[in-house]
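[#protein-structures] MJ: dropping Multiple sugar transport system permease protein here for a structure pass
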Amino acid sequence: MTSPLSRALHALGLLAVIVFTLFPFYWMVSSSLKQQSDLLASPPLWIFNPTLDHYRAVLADPRVLSSIGDSLIVASVTTAIAVLLGTPAAYALARFDFRGKSDLWFWFISNRMVSPIVLALPVYLLANQLRLLDSYAVLVLIYLTFNLPIVVWICTDQFRSIPGELEQAARLDGASQFTIFRRIYVPLGVPGIAVSAIFSFIFSWNELMYALVLTRRNVQTAPVIATSFMSGYELPWGKIMATGTLIVLPVTIFAILVSRHMIRGLTMGATK
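AK: finished. structure tokens for Multiple sugar transport system permease protein:
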């Protein structure tokens, strides 16, 4: 049984983590509600008269709503393709042994180790040669390179937790390999598939580097528009923070609503 001191230290540690995690969101939202003079005050103002002027200015800009629509298209298409391609690959990795399996698995994991800034120039040159710059296709293709491994990684652990006896019983009943995958593994793996889809959508929605390098006028995602308010002579922090809040708010609400399912999906594959 834990002592009162250990429980107090545990609670204090959790409180510190919560404050450290939530403070940037508080600062962004509060800054979006301050006048420009209050934003530049030193020391910072903790008590102020809130205003919605920055939100009115941002929502009056047609580029903002258009960019949110572009982000929604790119993130949705990327997530759909990543799940469609990633779940069969995860099933194969979870249930079959073949040459190079460990190397392929390491390749999926190591994809997240490469910084986007390292690949930005090569990707730009390749996209320029293929005439894909400033299009939905180039963003979807490049986002798949880091979202597809996430889907495979999460779904593989999810499928490994499903008892193999179910597959053997289905084979005795004459079920084909595809039927087993569709009728057994997909329904039982829904929590992991949902979690991988959520992460894929969030990563695609928030990505900035590739969108900034590969798009110009026809396609501009919401993070790119947020940076476009900055110029060499002016930093309208109120507009930037208001745009950032509009970008983060839908994903945050969505994550809160599905947090229970996310935790269930992440932990189901941890034990057998």
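MJ: nice. The radius of gyration is 23 Å.
AK: one more thing. The mean pLDDT is 85.
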